[in-house]
Design a protein that fits this description.
It comes from Novosphingobium organovorum. The protein is α/β, with parallel strands linked by helices. The protein contains 15 helices and 10 strands. The N terminus is likely disordered. The structure holds 1,4-dihydronicotinamide adenine dinucleotide and 1,3-dihydroxyacetonephosphate.
Length: 341
């Protein structure tokens, strides 16, 4: 049991025991002050080890898992809970959610990506796979190891069900070190998280090529302009993208080797191929799957997104990093601000 919604406690679980799912289970256990949080791991042996050793040695080895977290590899056990946080990588959300019985529940989407095969954002995927669910998006500057250690941060919790859903979810999720902020802009929240991963790869490339801190700051600002362009075209709001789930997370992941996406870019900038940089990794760098589909969507929708296009080109391996950057730098000069619509 966890949190309260009026008189009745909200029973909550986490679907996906990667680094972020595990850290979120920690945050929920702390918010519940003694209640149980069920954590679904795809790997049965991992679920057993988490329960026995209180460590997720595969995805988050540095953290000691709160006593209130119980791991299981049986997804059906989560089927009856009132609220689920979906934390499997974006490319697997549809298949995992489809295995849950469809019934009315709060489903909080925590993956940051676009489905590569369809171009769908996470809420579109979940709407089809779990039509009875009430959807929300949780996103912000949140390195898993810091959240698991109880270090403070703040996130956007965008609720499709407005304040009524927020009133149910916020007490279940919030603690002094994990502060959700209310929004009803689901589209803006999911786009911020998906696009910042692609921009973090670009910033890693700049670092790998040794282009300097000025270049990185310029890239963050121009990357943010691309995030805004895509977000506004999809009906997201500028104030959402300037908040925790957009600019906040962009600044975090574009400036730290703790980011898997930044580290992937760093390797590309240092001359590694994408295949080399990604091979043998059990952890996910979502930007690698999101960049090609984002570039494709932007092209189809007539949106100017040169940084996203450049990351997609680099990942496909058709040109070395230095040439891709040189192409970006020789584009025609333009006004910094978008013309008013
Ligand atoms: N790690 C972090 O600091 C944060 C991650 N996120 C997002 O959370 C999502 C999950 O990332 P992490 O927990 O970091 O993952 P991770 O990289 O730690 O672990 C990979 C996850 O993918 C799962 N997986 C692999 N193959 C699968 C399959 N065929 N079907 C279903 N699941 C499969 C594994 O079981 C594991 O849970 C991503 O969208 C990521 O962008 C968001 C905020 C912070
Ligand atoms: O989303 C994150 C922090 O907010 C984690 O970023 P990476 O997936 O690049 O490690």
């Amino acid at each position: 049991m966890n949190g309260t919604s009026g008189a009745r406690p909200v029973r909550v679980g986490v679907v996906g025991a990667g680094a972020w799912g595990t850290a979120l289970a920690q945050a929920l256990a702390r918010a519940s002050k003694g209640g149980e949080v069920l954590l679904w791991a795809r790997e049965a042996a991992l679920a057993e080890r988490i329960n026995q050793t209180r460590v997720n040695d595969l995805y988050l080895p540095g953290a000691t898992i709160e006593p209130g977290v119980r791991a299981t590899s049986d997804l059906a056990q989560l089927g009856e809970l009132d609220a689920l946080l979906a934390v499997v990588p974006a490319q697997f959300l549809a298949s995992v959610i489809a295995d849950l019985p469809d019934r009315p529940r709060d489903l909080v989407l925590c993956a940051k990506g676009i489905e590569a095969t369809s171009g769908r954002l996470m809420a579109d995927v979940a709407r089809e796979a779990a039509p009875a669910s009430r959807l929300a998006v949780l996103s912000g500057p949140t390195f898993a190891h810091e959240v698991a250690a109880g270090l403070p941060t703040a996130v956007t919790l965008a609720c499709s069900g407005g304040r009524e859903q927020w009133d149910r979810l916020a007490p279940t999720i919030a603690s002094p070190a994990f502060r959700p902020y209310y929004s009803d802009d689901v589209i803006g929240a999911e786009i911020g998280g998906a696009i910042k991963n692609v921009l973090a790869i670009a910033c890693g490339v700049v670092e790998g090529l040794g282009l300097g801190q000025n270049a990185r700051a310029a890239l963050i600002a121009r990357g943010y302009a691309e995030m805004l362009r895509f977000g506004l075209a999809r009906g997201g709001r500028a104030e959402t993208l300037s908040g925790l789930c957009g600019l906040g997370d962009l600044v975090l992941t574009c400036s730290s080797t703790s980011s898997r996406n930044f580290s992937l870019g760093l390797a590309l900038g240092q001359g590694m191929s994408a295949a080399q940089a990604l091979s043998g990794k059990s952890s996910v760098a979502e930007g690698a799957a999101t960049a090609p589909i984002l570039a494709d969507l932007a092209r189809r929708e007539g949106l100017d997104m040169p940084i996203a296009q450049a990351v997609a080109r680099l990942l496909e391996g058709s040109a070395p990093a230095r040439d891709v950057v040189s192409d970006i730098l020789s584009r025609p000069l333009r006004a910094e601000q978008e013309p008013a619509a």
